[in-house]
Amino acid sequence: MSGALAMRVRNMRLSGRIGLALVLFWLVLAVGGPALAPHPVGAFIDQEVFSGPGRTFWLGSDYLGRDVLSRVLWGSRYTVFLALGAALLAVLGGTSLALFSAIRGGWTDEILARAMDTLNSMPSKIFALVLVAAFGSSLTLLLLIAAFIYIPGNYRIARALAINLVAMDFVQVARARGEGAFHIARYEVLPNMIHPLLADTGLRFVFVVLLLSGLSFLGLGVQPPYADLGSLVRENISGLPMAAPAIIVPALAIASLTVGANLLIDALKPGGKA
Amino acid sequence: MTVELAPPPATGPSDASAAAVEVRGLSITVAQPDGTRRAIVENISFAVPRGEVLALIGESGSGKTTIALALMGFSRFGATIAADCLRVGDMDIAAMGQSALRGVRGSRIAYIAQSAAAAFNPSRTILSQVIEPLLVHGLAGREEARARAVALFRSLALPSPETIGDRYPHQVSGGQLQRLMAAMALITGPELVILDEPTTALDVTTQVEVLRAFKAAIAESGATAVYVSHDLAVVTQVSEHIVVLQNGRMVEQGDSARILTAPQSEYTRTLLAAARPAIRPTADAALDKVLTVDSIHAGYGRIVRGMPATPILADVGFTVRRGSTLGVIGESGSGKSTLARVIAGLLPAASGEVLLEGQPLPRAMAQRSREQLRRIQLVFQNADTALNPAQTVRDIIARPLAFYHGLKGAAAHARVDELLDLIRLPRALADRRSTELSGGQKQRVNLARALAAEPDVLLCDEVTSALDTVVGAAILDLIDELRRELGIATVFISHDISTVRAFCDEILVLYAGRAVERCPKAAFDGHSHHPYTRLLIDSVPDMDPTWLATRAAAAGPALAVSAIAPELCRFLPRCPVAIGGLCDSNPPPLHVDDGRAILCHRAGGPGDASR
Amino acid sequence: MTAAPPTRSAAARLLPMIAGRIASSLLTLFLVSVVIFVASSLLPGDAAQELLGQSATPAQIAALRHEMGLDQPGPVRFVHWLGALLHGDPGVSFVANMPVSDIIANRLPNSLLLAAITALISIVLALTIGIASAINRGGRIDSALNIATLSLVAIPEFLIATLAVLAFSVKLLWLPSISLVTPETGWAETLRALALPVLSLTCVVVAQMARMTRAAVADQLDRPYVEMARLKGVPFGRIVLFHVMPNAIGPVINAMALSLSYLMGGALVVETIFNYPGLASLMVNAVTSRDMPLLQSCAMIFCATYLALMLVADIVAILANPRLRA
Amino acid sequence: GPSPQRRPAAASSGAGAIRVASMAASTKDTLDPAKGAMATDYVRHYMLYSGLTSIDDDSLRPRPALAESFDSDDRITWHFRLRRGVRFHDGAPLTSADVVHSLRRHNDPAVASKIAAIAAQFAEVRADGRYGVTIRLTGANADLPTLLAQAQFLIVKAGQDHPDGTGTGAYRLAQFEPGVRTLVVRNREYWIPGRPHLEQVELIAIPDETSRVNALLSGDVHAIHAINPHSLPRIEASGTCEAVVTPSSLYTNLIMRQDHLPTSSPDFVQAVKHMLDRPLINRALFRNTAMLGNDQPVAPVMPYFNRELPQTVLDLDRARWHVRRGGLNGLRLPLYCSPAATGSVDMASILQEYGSQVGLEFAVNRVPADGYWSTHWMRHAMTFGNNNPRPTADLVFSLFFQSNAEWNESGWKNERFDRLLTEARGEADEVRRGELYGEMQRLVHDRCGIAIPVFISLCDGYDKRLKGIKPIPLGGFMGYRFAEFARWED
Ligand SMILES: Nc1ncnc2c1ncn2[C@@H]1O[C@H](COP(=O)(O)OP(=O)(O)OP(=O)(O)O)[C@@H](O)[C@H]1O
Ligand SMILES: Nc1ncnc2c1ncn2[C@@H]1O[C@H](COP(=O)(O)OP(=O)(O)OP(=O)(O)O)[C@@H](O)[C@H]1O
Ligand SMILES: [Mg+2]
Ligand SMILES: [Mg+2]
């Protein structure tokens, strides 16, 4: 098993390996980073604000004089787990519904598709605003809300894929064997759409990261003193004119995380090219 | 490959210097992941005299297409072409740059692809694509190009030559499309035409028309041609010379007549043998009827008042006894697969019944019990799509074992191995995904999956059509053996009448969804047949170079079946022996005698349908 | 098998589809209004409370509630609203005390203008990028464009917008930092005012569209007909334009429609940063002030835009594909 | 920095026409002074209308305006004499009828006046001839002239149920689009000769602070309201703009409900008050522009501020001692904050930090701004409030600290405080009033469950070519009245 994995990595293109390295880096940081944080995440310890990198504050301080390094370390945990969790949940939900829809067909399909269109047509940030205002923004709720918002998008893609697959002969074979809907969905259809789904997960992941930062733009999101990477960018936006590390670092973190994840996913595709 | 099979020296059938095409020492290599290069074809040498036709023949993957494309200086997947000599006319293809090659392609060397359906751009009109070579090479203006195209359409015997060009590729039949592609290739008056299996995808009846048209057109244009095929009988009709390929190497080359009559290599002999299947002995028909199909009407779309929106099958019925084989033949679109789907329950019939050992089966599979489903197994037409590309061979075969027989773990493992042995696949292949198998291997897995259910009835839908003759013959042997050993009743669907005739105990001929004839094998060689059956039999090419020339031209063009009244004979528009005032006014009667049934006004009477 | 004149059969095929779509769109719009209604009734507080604010007395709130009809049960209010809407009246804004239609009439053209200009620019850009990388797929240009578009997707839009303001307005003084457009502003001034919002929004949508274009074009480039065209000696540029694009346009236009639907409601951040009076910020206002009639109407507009874009995408796909057209 | 001459001089017609950005605008924007609720409204209303009295400098004392004089013997019945010859923008003369209409409106629930609570003390408002108005109050109130200077009490035309901008103010309305912009032009017949100085003012709102500052720096607007102290360095550094910091009595306060446990425990309250690192809050949140608060609502800039009161300072030992004495160690308590209450989110973080050092665990709950006041404020044991500058100490105390006040935020009950408040309201003697208010401040400081860490200063940004600006502690933009005083000098 691990041998096969090693083989895959060795056969990967350079960009895929870079992606893998970036993803692993951020995963490790998300798990272990907070333990490495040199300062408490909410402590206002620098007399200055937006100071540059220095001995006490490796990555400088933020708009309130907090340690940027510590905040980024914590922030990466929230971003990685929230965004990953929400993206996976969204794909899980959207794909399950899509499979159900495609395999059932008929009215079920029509109604589900309409319902998803309904949700899809609402601007995501505004929808999130309404949901967060209505249900609050605990971490779990945030995760669920972000997932909920991206279910329809995934549904759309997964349904298009599944409908093509359901018409394939091997699905007919399974039907003719008398297989139940679950088996068909799980073993016949799903494995054949895994790569486009992965690619979609990568994009949803980016979207959730952006949604979170967009929510922080509206004053919602992860509870203080913690903040996800997007919120870190947002709250330090006034440091942009002086190119403070407080804004550059989290922005780079987001970019490297999302680009890395997508490079890795691209490289996982069979043929690696398409 | 060893020395004994090394190609003969590159002496063409006639003087090589006069040859329009000369190839010497052609090798084509691809880079492998580990950096080394692998040869797909190696050391190929041949020459074609001006105005003659050379055939490249060999099994799938032997490098025929690769060589043909190399003649245009074109290679797929970044393969590299190397040759001592690669000459077409006065052009040294191997030495030409990309833009020079582009100037030659489509103007001096033209290509006719294997599948016209794939090679035509689906969203542009046919005419715009046919005249494109003229336009991009600046050989003619739009108006002149159009005129030339229409003239070509006419000479290729295409219907409504003035307007057919305004249609889109999906709006014409496969045979017509193939001829339209010939027009596209010939429109610039090329010196060399390369035809890559241009009739493989066609029905026998259509193939004859297309072959005839090609042959005439090539002769008329005076072009030199390279004809790629895996079918010896077809090649015999068109080519003067044959090059036999195996695994990217030349096995043999020479005059067509010589290769057919005195093949030198073992491989060529195998090819010849497989092309004419031996008639198998009839099964000792057990008495019990396993499968009975009674007066089925079926079609697609919503069923309104007992009639589907698109009716396909009308009043089809037959029985199959234990251990015997029913062959179903008919042209593409005649409803063969539809029939199989109705029996399997995938497509509920609008009316009529399917009985298994006398017990009526529910029409839709959703209502059938698991046991009923198990007892009828359908082997799908296309193994490529019938096998889940995400599963391994073992997953695929083990699933029916677990599903129907509750076999798991080691027992299932062992049984899968047994089945692999049965279909003669190495056990080592069990852990490969289906995408990593060859076409023949896939079809065997497809078969093994059906066998794993231990069915009473096996529905084989064109299981050998996509394979080359050698591999196909092996699969047929296998089915035949299973039928005899396990007593499985088989419904064998094919569009290839020679296979069906050799292989089946009884033959059902479908035309446009109707069973126009049912005939036991014993009676098949008799001369009274439905005119359509006759047409099918006559369309199978012989290994005789004169066959095409001597065969009478076909009756009128295929008409839309929907254009005639539903109760009349559906073959009427194409029937060469239709009786005016009878066939076009009365529904055809059914004649039944000594086990055969023919749906025709002529059958049985003094004016028998046979000629 | 017979080829009817394509235009007539196109119409014959399109008209029922459009009719069907409009019917199902009405259903979707109805669903949207229900969802919005339910979601907003989950929100704490109501319009009366928000309007009077922190310093209102309960008596005042009760009076205002009565005036607004908020003291009636939810379903009753919904039915009233729906009934009025069916008569073409989207109601009166609770907060602004103006007909909702007037408020929207003020904002909608702004949103449409911004979306239209952005759409135009980003479509051209996305096609260029997508085709360029599909042609060079696997090559260096492709990798560079791939990473560039991915990074562009990953940058929060407020960051892009703020950077643009800092560079072009504050530093260079080239373009206004806020987009004030009034009916009196001339078109040159309007274009200047819209330059930065358009730039920011383009960055947001173009990457996604370019990636989809690349996928669709790359898929077509692997088709046998492309090889056939090359074997006919057709120049590559011509192959891409005349052979590949007509086939790729269906999936491309679909992806584009999805992205473009973002330009209306998703412009929220850009509208905020550039102080652009568009619909998205109006809808957020409606949410925060619990202005139900306005909120409902905004949601319906966004939904209708989305559905219309999807419809257009499907129609284009059908028109581009003779198989569907016939 | 960019050269000043390249910067656009003004919105449209050359010098004297400026564009001004406030913080928020919405479709709620109104021309009705009684409904004014936000800075944008106040600025607009002060440009269009005038009041009976006005507050023109940082003494915060009322001066005559439309009323050329006012007096009262018992501080219950007040007489106002109106200035003659004042005309509305449509030419109609100002008379007592207009004033009576303007003041009475507030008691009509249909008007939904923002200050209905204050207007409730009007027992009677009647005309006293063409140029006299008499107001009888339900109880004595020495502050009435100060109260009448508020934006909501600006005078509108008699007979207008929905005022349309026709006032007696320094500018006439040219265009009004709620939520988008207000355009006014100079009123050449303004009743104060020589004013205003600007030809045209366009008032817009830019809700996003960064955008607002950028708009100022890029010259797209010439004055901006409410900037974050963190933006001050950027404005100073620009060379073309300057910031004006107005000390005010605005504050964000921590509310500890006295009807909840454990916030009702005096030990808890004392512990929290000693846990507040006021200098840190001032420094980190407000870049040292704020004034330290002392847990009572009268700011140093206000009349009657009690200078004797000892300043509570950060004393963790003392806090720990209170925690231990109250048996509160290890307590976990949710703390609600929201962007709706300026700075409360960061204050909550700071409190959380220090709480962990004294054995109190605060679970910070940041909730959305919309709906905060109706659903969270005062509804949980610990929430944050936010109080705008009020013109009088009486107003703050009676709105937020009186036992039966509707927004008695902490729910405290102190009879002595209530008595002092009533007494001070009717007291004419300034010295005695000062003593009474001083005493009340002490009571709140010692006993009330309200912690006020700092008084927040209001920061505005101006183009340097805009002159005549000075701080008035009632609010930013010179108590929202800058348009009357500002001059444009190239
Ligand atoms: N991507 C690839 N890289 C390297 N080799 C390949 C690739 N694809 C195919 N080949 C090999 O090239 C060889 C020649 O293929 P070619 O298409 O010329 O065969 P063919 O004789 O035309 O077969 P068919 O009858 O199936 O068309 C085959 O052995 C095949 O395995
Ligand atoms: N799902 C479907 N809906 C509508 N029509 C269909 C459908 N599937 C097949 N048909 C039509 O039914 C007719 C018979 O199709 P069928 O697949 O049974 O033919 P076939 O004899 O198996 O042909 P082939 O030799 O090409 O496999 C054809 O005209 C086909 O176009
Ligand atoms: Mg080939
Ligand atoms: Mg078939």
TrEMBL record, chain A:
Predominant place of localization: membrane
GO BP, sorted A to Z: transmembrane transport
Keyword vocabulary terms for this entry: Cell membrane, DNA-directed RNA polymerase, Membrane, Transcription, Transmembrane, Transmembrane helix, Transport
Record field: transmembrane: 78-105, 126-151, 197-222, 242-265
SUPFAM superfamilies: MetI-like
Membrane topology: Multi-pass membrane protein
Highest taxon of the lineage: Bacteria
GO cellular component term, pick one: plasma membrane
Subcellular location: Cell membrane
Residue span, ABC transmembrane type-1 domain: 76-265
Keyword Transcription: yes
Residues of the signal peptide: none
UniProt xrefs under PANTHER family: OLIGOPEPTIDE TRANSPORT SYSTEM PERMEASE PROTEIN APPC, PEPTIDE ABC TRANSPORTER PERMEASE PROTEIN
Protein family (similarity comment): Belongs to the binding-protein-dependent transport system permease family.
Protein name, as recorded: DNA-directed RNA polymerase subunit alpha
Automatic annotation (TrEMBL), chain B:
Protein name stated in the entry: Peptide ABC transporter ATP-binding protein
SMART domains with a match to the protein in the record: AAA (SM00382)
Location of this chain's protein in the cell: Cell inner membrane
PANTHER family hit by this protein: D,D-DIPEPTIDE TRANSPORT ATP-BINDING PROTEIN DDPF-RELATED, TRANSPORT ATP-BINDING PROTEIN
N-terminal signal peptide: none
Entry-linked InterPro entries: AAA+_ATPase, ABC_transp_ATP-bind, ABC_transporter-like_ATP-bd, ABC_transporter-like_CS, Oligopep_ABC_C, P-loop_NTPase
GO BP terms: peptide transport; transmembrane transport
Domain of life according to the entry: Bacteria
A GO term for molecular function: ATP hydrolysis activity
Family: Belongs to the ABC transporter superfamily.
Any one annotated GO CC term: plasma membrane
Keywords tagged on the record: ATP-binding, Nucleotide-binding, Transport
Record organism: Novosphingobium colocasiae
Residues in ABC transporter domain copies: 23-272, 291-537
Membrane topology: Peripheral membrane protein
UniProtKB/TrEMBL annotation, chain C:
UniProt keyword annotation of Transmembrane helix present: yes
UniProt keyword terms in alphabetical order: Cell membrane, Membrane, Transmembrane, Transmembrane helix, Transport
Transmembrane segments: 22-43, 112-135, 147-170, 190-210, 252-274, 294-320
Any one Gene Ontology cellular component term annotated for this protein: plasma membrane
PROSITE patterns (alphabetical): ABC_TM1
Signal peptide feature range: none
Membrane topology annotation: Multi-pass membrane protein
Subcellular location: Cell membrane
Start and end residues of each ABC transmembrane type-1 domain: 108-313
Protein's GO biological process: transmembrane transport
Family to which the UniProt record says this protein belongs: Belongs to the binding-protein-dependent transport system permease family.
Name of the molecule in the record: Peptide ABC transporter permease
Source species: Novosphingobium colocasiae
